[in-house]
Write a structure and sequence with these properties.
Layout lengths: L2 H13 L8 E5 L3 E6 L2 E4 L6 E5 L1 H8 L5 H6 L4 E4 L1 H11 L1
Parallel strand pairs: 1-4
Antiparallel strand pairs: 1-2, 2-3, 4-5
Helix pairs in contact: 1-2
Length: about 100
């Protein structure tokens, strides 16, 4: 597992500390995937309600609050595959 995935798991765990009602996967291009669900946050590649894909820089900007997830999607920096409602719910959790 890469250092980027390890750092992302830790950062997401802080943001989603109250749990998440649903399941989502963040795929960081050339690094790996992170699962967010009712069990918490972990590295993995399980089947989820929605998959969000971005490069490492975009993902880091979203986590740091420098880039709004919706803006990232609208500009093509973040792709969404699956339940758009679940993606919006996760976007609200991330800020």
């Amino acid at each position: 597992m890469s250092d980027i995935i390890d750092a992302a798991v830790a950062a997401l765990a802080d943001k989603v500390s109250g749990g998440f009602d649903g399941s989502a996967k963040f795929t960081i291009e050339d690094e790996g995937s992170i699962i967010v669900d009712g069990d918490g946050v972990r590295a993995g590649d399980d089947e989820t309600d929605v998959t969000l894909t971005a490069d490492a820089d975009t993902f880091q900007s979203i986590l740091e609050g420098d880039l709004n997830p919706t803006a990232a999607f609208m500009t093509g920096k973040l792709s969404v595959d699956g339940d758009m409602g679940m993606a919006m719910k996760l976007g609200a959790v991330l800020g």
